[in-house]
């Protein structure tokens, strides 16, 4: 059975939710959404999923379909802000830029006074990254995203968190279309944990705009037969994953 890169990425994202316990999953992107659903069906059965608006749903619904699942809780916007401040979410965000310590930018590219590109603003990134576990998903690993220094800090990295004594800061991993990276390098710097099948360490280094910490690099684990069946038949029968990470 041929396993696609998208499926490897989805399982890596699922693993980032495995220890979440009773928390609301907030995945941004197709692959993280598959990962959160897969985790709920396997390693994290207490993970809470929403319909994307204001309801907590009882079942794990397929991606790309309108939810008809039983509603088990109401989640108005004000409650979401309370949960954000209280650390009861498990977030996987994207990044327009991220540096070696996990500082993330989704706001603008370029000089403060005259930016080249205006993006979506910092949104909830500061609160996410200082109040509960936050991970990142990058579908196109490149030197434009993995930069020496971000142009604006939206999500807080390990170096800045230490300076201000951010007690609940917990940025753990970055999953990309090439690899899984963590922050177990010197002083909390980004480290290459694993490369996906068919990817070399040198390829990841060449597409990263700073020096990665590299120890013993494993190969990212493959999905089990059960996980493949859940991804293909129950979670993403429309194959939306292959549009985000083409084979």
From TrEMBL:
<protein>
    <submittedName>
        <fullName>CoA-transferase</fullName>
    </submittedName>
</protein>
<dbReference type="InterPro" id="IPR037171">
    <property type="entry name" value="NagB/RpiA_transferase-like"/>
</dbReference>
<comment type="similarity">
    <text>Belongs to the 3-oxoacid CoA-transferase subunit B family.</text>
</comment>
<dbReference type="Pfam" id="PF01144">
    <property type="entry name" value="CoA_trans"/>
</dbReference>
<dbReference type="InterPro" id="IPR004165">
    <property type="entry name" value="CoA_trans_fam_I"/>
</dbReference>
């Amino acid at each position: 059975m041929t396993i696609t890169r998208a499926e490897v990425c989805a399982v890596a994202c699922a693993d980032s939710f495995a220890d979440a316990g009773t928390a609301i999953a907030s995945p941004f992107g197709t692959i993280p959404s598959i990962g959160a659903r897969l985790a709920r069906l396997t390693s994290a059965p207490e993970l809470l999923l929403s319909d994307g608006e204001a309801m907590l749903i009882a079942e794990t619904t397929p991606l790309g379909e309108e939810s008809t699942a039983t509603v088990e809780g109401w989640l108005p916007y004000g409650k979401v802000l309370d949960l954000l401040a209280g650390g009861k979410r498990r977030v996987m965000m994207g990044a327009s830029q991220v540096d070696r310590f996990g500082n993330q930018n989704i706001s603008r590219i370029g000089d403060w006074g005259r930016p080249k590109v205006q993006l979506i603003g910092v949104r909830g990134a500061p609160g996410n990254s200082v109040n509960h576990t936050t991970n990142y998903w990058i579908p196109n690993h490149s030197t434009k995203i993995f930069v020496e220094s971000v142009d604006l800090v939206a999500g807080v990295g390990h170096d800045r968190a230490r300076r201000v004594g951010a007690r609940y800061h917990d940025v753990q991993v970055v999953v990309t279309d090439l690899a899984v990276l963590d922050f177990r390098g010197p002083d909390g710097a980004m480290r290459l944990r694993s490369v996906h099948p068919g990817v070399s360490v040198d390829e990841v280094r060449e597409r990263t705009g700073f020096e990665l910490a590299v120890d013993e690099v494993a190969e990212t684990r493959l999905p089990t037969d059960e996980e493949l069946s859940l991804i293909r038949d129950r979670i993403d029968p429309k194959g939306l994953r292959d549009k985000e990470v083409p084979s």
